[in-house]
Every structure is written in structure tokens, then in C-alpha cells.
Amino acid sequence: MAQYETHRTCGHTETVNLFGKVKKRFETIEWLETQPCTACKRAQEQAMAREAAEKAGRIQLEGTEKQVAWATEIRETFFTWLDRQPKETIDQTLTILDKRLYAERPENDPDSIAWREAEAEKIKAALIANEPNLRQAIESQIRRVANSIASAKEWIENRMNTSVFVADLTAVSILGRDVDNAPVTFPAGTFGKCKNGVFWLATTGFVEATVQKFRCELAFVKAEKVTENPDGTISMSRRVAQKALDDAADRTNANALSYVTVTLRGANIE
Question: How many CA atoms lie within 13 A of 71 on its CB side?
């Protein structure tokens, strides 16, 4: 490997590290010298994304100057993908909708299937009221939701999978409720508390038997995410509870998965 100075079309000089056969290196240098430097190329890409956002009437992003510039690129990349391949995000939204509806009723509820079907019909009727079909209605909602996300930080944090990120928010907007962030109350004794404030799954069963000796080393739920109630019960969001129980199952064995599901479904969702 060796370093080479390249003279770019923007007038800047940029040092690059190249390796391989000499002929290939010089071919690469020749090509690089037909391109702007890295900084100028980034500035061009950000300017193009900013112009596209302004032309499309996107909502103004909030954050630092650098965050907004980066997030604008991420957002425009998502919209470009949505224009070309809307099916993926639509399918993800439908899948998340189904999972969220399933999570709202316990498996042992005899009316759960009929309830989910009725809810699905209500959702469909509301969506297609002003659209020709369900998929087009969902795509329109995806676009509205994506354009409503003003936090540059959120776009950046979810840059590796913006499609799922937007699909999840779209599903919440369609349902009109966010079960994942709804409080879940567990009976007294379901979780134990360590000296450092971390809560661990304490209920007897597959999980407790396996992790008992390691319980205080396994940070299932941090104290700031838990509310300790006067009657001895504890509450947390369903999202936090699900992750805690999934983590417990991952650290034990496959048989614990069914136990974890029963434990969560046995909690009181307020």
C-alpha cells in the first residue's frame, strides 16, 4: 500500500491510500481526478438532498446543523426508495399492524380472533374511505408519517433500517394507539430487585431456575424504566417488559420462550 496525491475537479488535493498492481493504482488515480474531493462530494450530496426536500415540501428537520444535513440525506434516500419499491414498506406496515393487534388480546381469550378480524375491518374501512385501495391508502399514510418526523436525531438513529422505523410509526398512527408504550403491571414477586437497582425476572419457572445465580449481573430492566407501586406490583412499558423477557429467554433455552410469552400475557395491560 502507498499514498498518492490526487488533484480533484473541485481544485482540491486529496491524499489516498491505494494497493494492488501499479497499473490498477494509476487507473484509480486517473478516475479519482475526474471526481470532486470527498468533502466537496459530500457537500454536493447534501445540497441535492436539501433541494429535493424543499421541492417536495418536506417538514423542516430539527437538530444541529450537522444533524439536519445528515438526516436530510437519510430522509431523501428513504423517499427515493419508497418511490421505487413501495411494496417493502407497505408489507412491513401490514406485518407490524398484525403483530400489534395480536399483542392486544391474550391467546386464551376465546374472542381474540373475532376481535382482531373486526378491528382489521374497521382499520381497512377507515383507510380506504378516501383511497382507491388498501395498499395505496397505506402508502399515502406512510408518506404522511415520514414527512411528520421532524427529529433529525431519530432519522440518524434509525438510518440502518429507515423502512421498518417508518413502518412502525405508520402502524401506530393507523391504530391510533401505541400498545408497546402502554404501561404493563406485573404482580408482586414477578421481578426481583438487586442492590444496584436493576430488576431481574424472579418468577419461578424455566428462566428463574437458570439465571438465579447470575441475576444481579444480568441487567434485565434498569430502575429508571420501572415504577414500583405501593401494593408491591411493578409497572413498565410493554416494550421494556418484552425486551426484558426476551433477554431472559435468550440467556436460558428455547423452552423458556413459551414461559416468557405466558408471563407477559399474564400481566395487566392498563
Answer: 23
